[in-house]
Design goal:
With about 425 residues, the protein is α+β, with helices and mostly antiparallel strands. It contains 15 helices and ten strands.
């Protein structure tokens, strides 16, 4: 029989009758539960924001962008000089196991207008027939511009110009012909409306059929960029380095370079990386709160049980065995706090994930509501760290027990 565990259970029953001891133990449970709840919420929301924003940018821009080096400073891959990758080079890229599909893109400045107003936009021509999944989750009305005179605009653009599905607009842009520039116009039908939650993207980008824009600006076998989408976003940097160093047609061409999405949107991804630092900071603060409360609980327990400690010492019980009694008692309290903390934390996160109660300003956070991502490894680590605080918290009570003599302990009432 484990005598230390037996005494610990007896203390638990007796403490439930003592108002002061019960208050201290209840406060300790509440502090641990609250701290763990805050840690779980910070992990799920922080990682949720990071994953959602990354996914949003990658879904729209691809993991990797291959373009002319002179256009690399443009966030939307706009430039007068296009690039062309021959079939052999494209085949080598497609044969990389992590590559899902490749979008050929032509981008140019344009103006869309109706009878009431106009606005400048960036026109993206994309071959949608080969990549049927692209933009599917972003379109809120209608469909992608499969036909020649179809155009896909954003929700913010449709609001500004008071446009609806199937409305007709005038599309105008400039093309270069025989060393001179001339303007060209087309009547376009709004085939769909999308919303990306990225304000700058929604404000500027329209989509049309690749063949239409290719003929209008007079490009043949030239594209503004090739956007590569991967099966696993975590492989982005690895695949990008491989393309730059090993794919002929890119590695031996100083004017054609491959850039990861992180290179093209450095400021955004630097900002996203701060989320993890915030999670770590919140976790450290909450662990300190737990440590203080567990230590305080153990000290109160030791002071209240000085007479019992004296009796146990009189029977020859060593300090370590006495300490184990309080260790089991603290473990019981901490496990209760962890149980309640996990339940409350997961409950709040599940409610937010399902009902999307708390909204965000997409112009600042690139998402419309607080996203939830359950990183179970990090949550398990947080649980383990709180349990690991018990041996640290028990050091001060152990010092008190070791200094307590038999005569002094029996005198105190």
């Amino acid at each position: 029989m484990n005598i230390e565990k037996f005494i610990s259970k007896r203390l638990d029953k007796k403490n439930s009758k003592k108002k002061y001891s019960k208050s201290i133990s209840d406060l300790c449970v509440i502090a641990i539960a609250s701290s763990l709840t805050i840690i779980i919420i910070s992990i799920c929301t922080g990682m949720g924001l990071e994953e959602s924003i990354k996914k949003n940018f990658i879904d729209l821009n691809g993991n990797i962008i291959i373009e002319n080096y002179s256009n690399s400073n443009s966030a939307h891959n706009i430039g007068e000089k296009g690039i062309y990758l021959n079939d052999s080079t494209l085949s080598k890229i497609k044969n990389i196991p992590e590559v899902k599909f490749i979008n050929k893109v032509i981008s140019t400045f344009s103006v869309i207008s109706n009878n009431r107003d106009f606005m400048g936009v960036i026109l993206n021509g994309i071959d949608y027939e080969n990549n049927k999944d692209f933009l599917n989750k972003k379109i809120i009305k209608g469909k992608k511009p499969i036909n020649k005179f179809d155009i896909l605009i954003s929700k913010s653009q449709s609001s500004k110009l008071n446009l609806n599905l199937n409305d007709t607009i005038l599309l105008s842009f400039i093309r270069k012909s025989q060393n001179k520039y001339e303007d060209t116009h087309s009547q376009m039908k709004i085939c769909g409306i999308y919303e990306s939650e990225i304000e700058n993207f929604d404000k500027n980008i329209c989509f049309v059929n690749l063949n239409y824009i290719e003929k209008k600006i007079g490009w043949k076998n030239q594209f503004s960029s090739y956007k590569i989408f991967l099966k696993n976003n975590k492989k982005t940097l690895q695949v990008n380095n491989y393309i730059n160093n090993n794919i002929s047609g890119i590695s031996n061409n100083y004017m054609t370079k491959s850039y990861s999405i992180y290179d093209k949107h450095t400021n955004i991804f630097d900002w996203i990386s701060l989320f993890k630092k915030n999670i770590i900071l919140i976790t450290i603060i909450m662990l300190i709160v737990c440590l203080i409360n567990i230590t305080k609980f153990l000290l109160v327990m030791v002071i209240e049980r000085i007479n019992m400690i004296g009796v146990l010492k009189s029977f020859g019980t060593n300090d370590f065995k006495i300490l184990k009694i309080f260790y089991y008692r603290a473990t019981n309290i901490v496990l209760k706090g962890i149980l309640y903390g996990n339940f409350i934390g997961f409950f709040i996160c599940v409610i937010q994930k399902k009902f999307k109660i708390i909204k965000l300003d997409s112009s600042s956070y690139f998402v419309n509501e607080i996203p939830i991502f359950f990183d179970f490894n990090s949550i398990f680590l947080a649980n383990f760290l709180i349990l690991a605080l018990i041996p640290i918290a028990i050091m001060i009570p152990y010092f008190k027990i070791s200094k307590l003599t038999l005569s002094n302990s029996l005198k105190i009432k």
